[in-house]
Amino acid sequence: MENQAPVFETVYKDYLGRLESVDLAAIARQWNLPFKNKSICIPLLGRIYDVGLEGVALAGQALGEGSRPPHLTCVTLFQYLLQNPKNPSQAKGWVCFRDFADAAPFVGGFNNTVERRLARDFEGSLDTLLPAAIKLGAIPWTANAPKCDAAFKIEAMPGLWMAVAANDADESFPASGHVFFAGNAHEFLDMESLAMLGMILVSRLKNFNSQY
């Protein structure tokens, strides 16, 4: 586990307390997820986590501080369970992060830590982007995709879809990366957690074994 400031431990325990009011078994049934030992198994961008009232760990690992995922991964999982929509609306189209109603305070950070990092990480090696995404469970984005050099779609968490479109640098334009969310993504996660999800995605695209 990464070294944590005391405040992160406080936040982690607070989330565990809030989970006591959540029917994890019902969420498991809703999304057809395994539920055992009072923990729900949640896929998140190519990895599976056990999440329950006693904590979070990679599936198959014993719970404990040594096996706990990084803080932002834990928060994303907690928020997904706390906000889980029982009847999510139909996702219609793709939305840029900045276009969600409550995104404004997080747009600058999202641009820097997600989209600009994506462009920087794969500049000059864009042919490696789709293979890296497929390792996480992505599929090529072909129909109705923006005009770009590489694009894919991925179910980041059950019911929550993301998409990426990227262009390599040329003589006229710098490299660029654009991350989109399904139009109903705000029903699954708050804006800060959606930004965290973007950070997890680009980190794992660059390094499948990233700590995130």
Structural overview:
- The chain is of the alpha+beta class.
- The protein folds into two domains: 6-83, no CATH class; 94-206, TATA-Binding Protein.
- It contains six helices and nine strands; from the N terminus they run H-H-E-E-E-E-H-E-H-H-E-E-E-E-H.
- The strands form two sheets. The protein has a five-stranded antiparallel sheet with strand order 5-9-8-7-6. Strands 1-2-3-4 form a four-stranded antiparallel sheet.
- Helix 3 crosses helix 6.
- The longest helix is centred in the middle third of the chain and has 16 residues, at 107-122.
- The protein is globular and about 55 Å long.
- The relative contact order is 0.16.
- The model has no long low-confidence stretch (mean pLDDT 93).
General shape: globular
Number of domains: 2
Major β-sheet, in short? 5 strands, antiparallel
**Roughly what fraction of the amino acids lie in strands?**
15-25%
- Which oligomeric form is depicted? single chain
Which architecture of the largest domain does the CATH hierarchy give at level 2?
Answer: 2-Layer Sandwich
Strand order of the largest sheet: 5-9-8-7-6
Q: Uncertain runs with pLDDT below 50, 5 residues or more?
A: none
- Number of contiguous helices: 6
SSE run: HHEEEEHEHHEEEEH
Cα separation of the termini: 11 Å
Query: What structural category characterises the helix and strand content?
Result: alpha+beta
CATH top level assignment of the largest domain: Alpha Beta
CATH fold-level topology of the largest domain: TATA-Binding Protein
- Rg for CA atoms: 17 Å
- The strand count comes to 9
What would the average pLDDT be, to the nearest integer? 93
> Residue share in helices?
25-40%
